[in-house]
């Protein structure tokens, strides 16, 4: 192990031992501070994130900083995470929450502020210390966040080393960090996720997004289009839960596309133009890093396409879906693919086929008022989240309007080679001891009853 990583982990362990002496109230004060600092400094942190990462939208990053900080803290406050956290007198079980130790967190350039914040809140809520290994295009953000936190930690009399940052991260150093800590959160590309699962430590990773958007017959098409466009264009499309496709009923297809166009979409159904655009967005079948998180105008200019002023999103209509078609993949920019279907089962199958290309385990966006249709899609699709009549990019990660855990790490289950098929929460960074008593009024059933 390098001297740098050894020193960081040793410092972190010493700080964590002090953190473990605090009661629930003081621990929660620290967690609240992590959120409030980002909320109060949302604009300068958003500006730094936009400049350093060179992707996304400044105003959307402000929204993200404020939204995630308020939502996550609201979900954490008042919840027990230390000592006795639950009693079931009838079952004879007492649950005791205990820390894991030191958490290693690899964080992405797409969310260089809110992901370190979220991970730190979950870790410290359970009295773990945390060491952040930022993406190279997120180092300045991580350090700025650390400086803001250290001022508050000093004021609170709390050791700074409960929140540390690898200041010059490399793949090798991040790999070393993961192996040296007690648990790992890996948010980013599949390389860092695979490294986390190879670390020999309990790890939580994410899978690629490719959210399929299904529009049911009879839904309010104007409202559905608005939600799906907002989902797709937020932060220039770098959010993994952003809606990637429009799967619309054939009989109302033209009406639905007209709604999208009226709300800022530029629609392309010319196969030659679509093929030319594919060479720019997916050269050699792989997403072009120079289009990721860029504006519609930038992408259109790269492709030699003229789009109207104020265009929010480019919508293409591929001739096919599923395997062998690049438009079936995740498009990390303001672009969507559109398909038509004759029956709801066909709509679900289109989504299913595209998910098998990329995005298994992540999320689906359904715009429908038909409960049977929604449930049939939920049963068929290999996703961890089905978000109904919402703006998926901002709500799949938890929102005040739904009951998904607010988070920045969206687990994709075994479909996405992840340990969890739900939103990461503080409870995932907690060890539990269970004190088991003899159950009240217990009696063993007869063999006849057992095997009846």
Automatic annotation (TrEMBL):
The keyword Oxidoreductase applies. Keywords: Oxidoreductase. SUPFAM superfamilies: ALDH-like. InterPro entries: Ald_DH/histidinol_DH, Ald_DH_C, Ald_DH_N, Aldehyde_DH_dom. GO terms for molecular function: oxidoreductase activity, acting on the aldehyde or oxo group of donors, NAD or NADP as acceptor. It comes from the Bacteria. CDD domains: ALDH_F20_ACDH. Signal peptide: none annotated. The keyword Oxidoreductase applies. Pfam families: Aldedh. Residues 5-263 form the Aldehyde dehydrogenase domain. PANTHER family: ALDEHYDE DEHYDROGENASE-RELATED. This is Succinate-semialdehyde dehydrogenase. It comes from Lacrimispora algidixylanolytica.
